[in-house]
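User: Second chain of the day. Same drill as before.
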Amino acid sequence: MDNLKTFFIFGLLIVSLLLWEAWQNDYVRPQQAIQAAATINEELPAITTEQQQDLPEMPVAVSSVEGLPDIEQPTAATSANKIHVKTDLIDVYLDTQGGDIRSLAFLKYPAESKTPDVPVQFMAETASHFFVTQSGLRSDVAAPTHYDQYTAEASQYELADGQDTLIVPLHWQSEDGLSVIKTYRFHRNSYLIDIDYQVENNSGERFTAYPYAQFNRIRPQEDSGFIYTYTGAVFSTEGNEYEKIDFDDLDDADFSRTAVGGWTAMLQHYFVAALIPNSAQENSFYGKSINQRNYTAGIKMPTINAANGDVAQASYHMYLGPKEHKRLEVIADNLDLTVDYGKLTIISQPLFTVMEWIHRLTNNWGWSIVFLTVLIKLAFYRLSAASYRSMAGMRKLTPKLATLKERFGDDKQKFNQAMMELYRTEKINPLGGCLPILVQMPVFLAFYWVLVESIELRQAPFIFWLQDLTAMDPYFILPVLFGLSMFFQQKLNPAPQDPAQAMVMKAFPVVFTVFFAFFPSGLVLYWVVNNILSIAQQWHITRKLGAL
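Assistant: Same format as last time:
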């Protein structure tokens, strides 16, 4: 019993270490990257000829690559090329070169709670944070790719009070009589952007092309760790609802798949960039590594055709925003899976749903954690009670075990045989005390991922000094309370018969206090409340059975 209990506590310690490392990767390091990208007014780097490899390949139905016209080398973006678009939720800079998004900030999400006026910079074209959109038309005749120059009707667009939709048209004209209008539609209280192409063909020849759209980003700075934090591409297609293709996968081989509907996305902690084509059409999805530096994930949509004098159209959607269940689940099938709880989704999702329901009543995520912990404790009340009765029974046997220890001395084999016989006589299950740890561990891990992945908890305050439940306790009050609660809980448990194990057990409250000092305060809050409730229940049962 003592060996097994010590093993479980060691296991909890190891899991805590892994979770702490994962939190460092998931929260602390991404926050540092956000701070580095907060300033976007630095000079944008020029795009080299080498980067033109990010153009998607031509399908056989249109033409061969050799038949493509030359593409002029683009120059660095300047303020004259930028179009500033501002809605109630996002601050965007489009570039007339390609007509694509080069910068995007989330106005409702500060990079840090202490600097509420500095928003999270999700997309940028800086050397340390290159993440942009790229889109265009691929054809064997002149057509606008993401390297071609559009003209804009204005350089500033802002969603006015009472205005629900903001329209930003961009124009491109060829010397052969082909004109293209690329239109962005931004909506109030929405991170979903509509992109439309209207192609008017007066070239005297039939025009054929396919629209494409892709994300292009650099690999984020990596730090070694025990748990890999996923940032990279995701594809959702028929038969593969949620398929991660990371940067290493793309270094090894390009990704390609054709499916009706579907979507592709780039994930980055609390936020997601997703391309959503028409759900009724067959689309080609692809991912590519460009010299193991830049990575693209995109969609090639069905070919559009326009006879001379005709007009062709194409459209798709782009979601650039937070990973909020309510927003994502109504946009596309399986898009809400980007809120990635991993293998414990079956537990994490219900936990978050209950927390969200409690939050509607309390309007405080900290109290949601407290009341959720109470509900979890109530759900496992009978199981815990049986375990605590077993431990109380073992506590009552402590004098008899001490007598056996004196009788058999250093003969551990005979002592263990006599101890197990005593347990059988007294009808006590020595493994019963380990049940709460076994049962709570999946819930503990699932709740950790809820805390890490749910943007609703990001920078959410609780009370007094706790102003961000996803950050560590700045004054270490909760970790100390956790250590004290663990100490008092040990006093209710039967003491180990092995002196070495007894010393190890005494050290655990101190060790866990140190580890939990650097954990998200919301997770420590859950564990403190859980320990307090456990102590109350165990004390009541132990006292009732006369084992105190």
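The two ends are 20 Å apart (CA to CA).

User: Great, on to the next one.
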